[in-house]
Amino acid sequence: MSGLLAAAVACEPARLSDLGTLVQVLWQFLSLSLFSLGGGNTLLAEYHHLAVAQFCWLTNTQFADLYALAEAAPGPSSMLVGLLGLGAGWREGPFWALLSAYGAEAAILLPSTLLMVMACLSWKRLEHSPWRVAFERGLGPITLGILFAVGLKILRTADTNWAGVVVSVVVCVLMLRTRISPLWFMAVAGVLGGLGVVNR
Amino acid sequence: MTEPRPSLSELFWGMLQVALSAFGGGLSAWSQRIVVEQRRWMSSEQFLTGLTVARLFPGPNQINMAVYIGAEFHGLPGALVALAGMLLLPFSLLMGLGLAYFHFHTIPSVDRVLAGVVAAAAGMALSMGFKILDQYWNDRVALLLAAVVFLALSLFDQRLIPVVLIAGPLAMAWYWPRRQSNP
């Protein structure tokens, strides 16, 4: 019982109205920005860690839902960060939720944007530099390892019954073997969920 | 060949058009169609260079591409304007969906449908690693590096930043381009 209570106390949702917390949150997103290798999806497990374990804004289930929402909606799936911000500010009401959503998205995009602008300006020199070659070839395998870890993390977070795991594996294979739009997979799986075949 | 460079407001509306056209998917194909073929702001080669830079540097590829297009014409202000044009509609839509989610997600039928959608989304996440596995299949060092990174993150529950800071320089040293005479 006391262990249970301790766990509950340890995971008190971090409030953004506290200035120290806000600075800490912004710093986390700003620094993660420069580590979004391979197109940004490499950060998914870190987002989960921040939102669920460290700052306790979201439950496991909510995180999985928001990830699915970001994948289903049009536009870059990295907008998930905005949804995390929404979850972080939700307890303070919709206005704060939106403010923290825009803040989180700005924080995750700003550093990589600045670096990208500098890269564009100096690309002629960078293009044939050994640094560029080593960076591109060296970070590739690291991205590969991260993406497998992210896939496993999301699968664990989804935490569905065996039918759900079958759906995940089938979707994974279809993503690799066909060019069918993933929206179809989500629609069919949503129906399976509604019918109670897939549950959690 | 290419038209005169776009103004800031033209950049904004152009990227907004890209985002709108891509509501069914295929963002980078649409941005090429609109930026290169329709509005003729860039040559194909310029655009392809942009894709290379966007993939190489940290940040979501599609967003980096918008930054590249904006920065090419107006530096940092151009980059921010292009980014705003590309994100405004999809981000606002997603936030609307998000607010609806936080209002309604406790309704049992909504939760049941979401459980199914989440299973499909997990499959999509699972496919990301397999998608790029092929290109490293014959490189044992790459597979070893990937395995070490995977284990550090998944089994030993290490955080991403320290793992990349340690593995990154080691990998870069191994893949540092060697001279032709010294294979």
Strand coverage percent of chain B: under 5%
Task: Give the helix/strand class of chain A.
Answer: mainly alpha
Please state the structural category of chain B: mainly alpha
Q: Please report the distance between the alpha carbons of the first and last residues of chain A.
A: 26 Å
General description of the model:
- The complex is a heterodimer of chains A (200) and B (183).
- In chain A, 74% of the residues lie in helices and 0% in strands.
- With 200 residues, chain A is an all-alpha fold.
- Chain A has two domains: 143 residues; 41 residues.
- In chain A, helix 2 runs parallel beside helix 6.
- Chain A is globular.
- The N terminus of chain A is likely disordered.
- Chain B has 183 residues and is an all-alpha fold.
- Chain B has a domain of 104 residues.
- Helix content of chain B is 76%, strand content 0%.
- Chain B is built from seven helices and no strands.
- Chains A and B meet through helix 2, helix 3, helix 4, helix 5 and helix 6 of A and helix 3, helix 4, helix 5, helix 6 and helix 7 of B.
Quick overview of this protein structure:
Chain A is mostly helical. Chain A is built from 10 helices and no strands. Classes of the chains: A mainly alpha (200), B mainly alpha (183).
Looking at this protein, list some descriptive labels:
heterodimer; A: 200 residues; mainly alpha; 2 domains; 10 helices; B: 183 residues; flat
What layout of secondary structure does this protein have?
The complex is a heterodimer of chains A (about 200) and B (about 180).
Chain A: H1 2-10, H2 19-33, H3 44-54, H4 60-72, H5 80-89, H6 94-121, H7 123-126, H8 130-158, H9 162-177, H10 182-194
Helix pairs in contact in A: 2-6, 5-6
Chain B: H1 8-21, H2 27-38, H3 44-56, H4 61-104, H5 108-133, H6 140-154, H7 160-174
Helix pairs in contact in B: 1-2, 1-4, 3-4, 6-7
